[in-house]
Design a protein that fits this description.
Length: 434
């Protein structure tokens, strides 16, 4: 395994130098057509299609019901160790505290003529939360449930439905159910994959459709979310995980390597990039990556990610490093510099920023509080983390007074006629007739 070392003198060199990264944007042929077939099957056959796909991909002997009973949820929660329940509870409290600060209030303005204008913020009626199975259900992604459910609850969504693939024996990992129990969520389905996304969007005989779908998933789940967007809202189109570490000579290369590998072990398509103005650090880091990667349980996956989609980039100074980081617009950005707060004002594009040597990305993944469902593949240029706002909508309120209408009637009618909409003009002018 070799993580490439690249050298550039100016940020303008980066697009040509980074051509190899474009392959991460291409999921390969066949994904979209396969997902189209899945969505159509669920729309036509409903529950029968869900059972069929679940048998083919997750549990050969799967049988209804699709929904996990409240008794099963409670029993599974009781089977989890007290220590695990306490850790899940601590993480949930931190996540809730952070997201409560995101709540937006409705507001109103009163004009001197008596008109009232405003914005009403309300939650959607139902949210669908996708929780990946994680290696056949043996590595439960509890954090993914917490990160999608808690913002929805803070937003005030009255109905939350959790969808997650069953294990080979047809059960859901008890840690997932324990987290749902802790959050007082009793609607949990043993259904995963792209077919669960279709069920959330269109509904089936036993599953009511939702308004917003949130949560990470594989390329088939992500493609399904993209294809149903517009029928429902979605949190984002997320790609493979990625981290960019911006480091100077003060950084600890062993820590940097550990941080890069924490993303590389996710997926063979994951990307871990370090940008530094210290060439000696780059050489030491490359050796640390080799050593630490070899000792990982997921060494093969991490090595592939490092070799195919990762790099150590040497720049002449931190200014160029920051400029390149903004061009990458990474999902996770670590500032491992002497004074990260001095660098932060120059960061424009990142899903989340981790400040200093003691804020490795996994702190945010699990426990700090900010959401770990983040924009990837450069979409941090225009999108944000999953948040309370993901589950809210804003309605404009217009309460015009008679005075406002009389004073502005001619202007409104003139604009309507400018656009060729005579009925619009007459609708306003009708209020001026006696």
């Amino acid at each position: 395994m070799t993580c490439r070392i690249l050298t550039l003198q100016h940020e303008q060199e980066w697009p040509a130098l980074a051509q190899w990264l474009q392959g991460r944007h291409n999921p390969g042929n066949g994904v979209e057509s396969a997902v189209t077939d899945i969505i159509n099957a669920v729309r036509q056959k409903g529950d029968d299609a869900l059972v069929e796909y679940t048998r083919n991909f997750d549990c050969p002997d799967f049988a209804p019901p699709l929904r996990v009973s409240e008794q099963e949820i409670a029993k599974a929660a009781a089977s989890v160790t007290i220590e695990s329940r306490e850790i899940i509870g601590e993480a949930a409290a931190n996540i809730r505290s952070f997201h409560e600060a995101q709540v937006e209030k409705s507001w109103f303005l009163t004009r001197q003529d008596g008109s009232i204008l405003g914005q009403q913020v309300t939650s959607v009626d139902a949210g669908g939360l996708y929780v990946p199975g994680g290696q056949g259900g043996n590595t439960p992604l509890v954090s993914s449930l917490l990160m999608s459910a808690i913002p929805a609850q803070v937003a005030g969504v009255p109905r939350l439905a959790v969808f997650t693939p069953p294990r080979k024996d047809g059960t859901v990992n008890p840690h997932i159910l324990a987290a749902a129990h802790l959050l007082d969520i009793d609607e949990v389905y043993r259904v995963g994959g792209a077919w669960s996304i279709a069920a959330m969007a269109y509904g089936t005989q036993t599953i009511q459709p939702v308004d917003v779908i949130a949560g990470p998933g594989n390329i088939f789940v992500t493609t399904a979310k993209r294809m149903v967007q517009g029928i429902v809202g979605i949190d984002m189109i997320a790609g493979p995980s990625e981290v960019l570490v911006l480091a100077d000579s003060s950084a600890n290369p062993a820590w940097l390597a550990a941080d890069m590998l924490s993303q590389a072990e996710h997926d063979a398509l994951a990307s871990a990039i370090c940008i530094t103005d210290d060439a000696r650090l780059a050489d030491t880091l490359q050796q640390e990556l080799k050593k630490q990667c070899a000792a990982l349980p997921r060494a093969t996956t991490a090595a592939r990610a490092l070799e195919d989609w990762s790099a150590i980039v040497v720049t002449p100074n931190l200014s160029v490093a920051v400029a390149v980081a903004n061009m990458v617009a990474p999902e996770h950005l670590e500032l491992c510099t002497r004074d990260p707060w001095a660098v932060l004002p120059f960061i424009r594009h990142a899903g989340a920023v981790f400040m200093g040597q003691h804020s490795p990305e996994p702190v945010g993944d699990y426990f700090a509080g900010p959401n770990h469902v983040l924009p990837t593949l450069g979409t941090a240029r225009f999108s944000s983390a999953l948040s309370v706002q993901t589950f809210c909508k804003k309605t404009s309120i217009v309460a015009a007074s008679s005075t406002f209408l009389q004073q502005n009637m001619q202007s409104i009618a003139a604009l309507a006629r400018l656009e060729g909409l005579e009925a619009h003009a007459r609708s306003v002018e009708a209020r001026g007739k006696k």
